[in-house]
Amino acid sequence: MVDVLVVGAGPAGSALAAACSDLGLRTMLLDRAPERPWRATYGSWARELPPLPADAIAARATNVRAHALTEHKLDGEYLVLHNENLRRHLSRPDIGIVTGRAEAITPTEVRLVDGRTLRAGVVVDATGPPRGRHAEQTAVGVALPADVLAPGEAVFMDWRQAGDPPTFCYALPLDGERVLVEETSLAHLPGLSLGLLRERLHRRLTVHGWPLDRPEHELVRFPLDPPLPRGGLVTFGARAGMIHPATGFGVATALTLAPRVARAIAETPAVIPRTIWPMSARMTHVLRRRGLAALLHMPPARIPEFFEHFFRLPAENQRDYLSGRENFTGTAAAMLALFRSASPRLRSAIAFAATTR
């Protein structure tokens, strides 16, 4: 029996397994295909990430722009992670790797579909977001030549050509030769179809005169509002609801939080749930879920106007809402500042949307 068994070898599970191993805990990592590549593109604000080796960063953008009704320059550096090198950074020779599929997971035991049973002092479920009917973020992306963006440039959101239901363009460098351009539905219930996003993406590429003869680089679909964990089983990453309801970001949170959770596992297992979800984080998450509800119920024509007011907020307000997982005061201040700055018609739309279930 090992001290820790982490189920799921994605970035969150790998980060936690590495942190546990670094503390001397006997650690095992279980996954159906532990060597499979991480296909998703993980972008993050530099301020959200823990220190990482230079080769774990695939690209950097220092000129980050957003388009709503007008153009805005955003504060901060935006990074794209190098999946293969990040995975290598999180690997440890003393982590036991097991290939298998979990059929049942309990706080101290995992039963596999092939009949094997694995036991540990603490089992952590890091198998990704739970299934169910949730608001989803969806996207379809292609890799284009690097010259479609200026060096060091990224487009965080472009709501021009938003359409109904509204979608935006997300564009960022993948490396020195390629740029990822994604047509993205920020939030919809249920998630928008990938077919519709393909049509929107091709239309956008045509408008910009960008090449159309590119195979799809990435398909994205994940829930934004999964329930927070309950019960005795420890969960981590997306499985624990550690996804920002307004942006879909979560990997940086997992990388930052993994050492703290590992320390709790090693020293005081009873505080693991509070380490992952302290009261300040829960309160902040509730506020951001109300912001998600407002977006889900807002008239599509108001979405670009909503983000115009958001991107006009002081940089501190924007940072507090987009980052700062435990910053309840800052998140509330950002939401209040946006509401106060909005036109009476937009205020009415926000108030109605935020209180509609």
- CATH topology descriptor of the largest domain: FAD/NAD(P)-binding domain
Overall geometric form: globular
* Rg for CA atoms: 21 Å
The end-to-end span amounts to 46 Å
Provide the CATH superfamily of the largest domain. FAD/NAD(P)-binding domain
Query: Which structural class best describes the helix and strand composition?
Result: alpha/beta
CATH architectural label of the largest domain:
3-Layer(bba) Sandwich
Q: What percentage of amino acids are in beta strands?
A: 25-35%
CATH classification, class level of the largest domain? Alpha Beta
Major sheet summary line:
7 strands, mixed
What is the total domain count? 3
The number of helices is 10
Topology, pairings included?
Layout: E1 2-7, H1 11-22, E2 27-31, E3 43-45, E4 57-61, E5 63-67, E6 71-74, E7 78-81, H2 83-90, E8 96-99, E9 102-105, E10 109-112, E11 117-125, E12 136-145, E13 153-158, E14 168-173, E15 178-188, H3 194-208, E16 216-223, E17 234-235, H4 251-267, H5 272-276, H6 279-297, H7 303-312, H8 315-322, H9 328-341, H10 344-354
Parallel strand pairs: 1-2, 1-11, 2-8, 5-13, 11-17
Antiparallel strand pairs: 3-7, 4-7, 5-6, 9-10, 10-11, 12-15, 12-16, 13-14, 14-15
Helix pairs in contact: 1-4, 6-9, 6-10, 8-9
Pfam families: Lycopene_cycl
Protein name: Lycopene beta-cyclase
Describe this structure in words.
This protein is an alpha/beta fold and 357 residues long. The chain folds into three domains: 2-57 and 80-130 and 226-277, 3-Layer(bba) Sandwich (FAD/NAD(P)-binding domain); 136-223; 280-354. It is built from ten helices and 17 strands. Strands 1, 2, 8, 9, 10, 11 and 17 form a seven-stranded mixed beta sheet that branches. Strand 14 and strand 15 (178-188) form a beta hairpin. The chain is globular, with a radius of gyration of 21 Å. The termini are far apart. The mean pLDDT is 93.
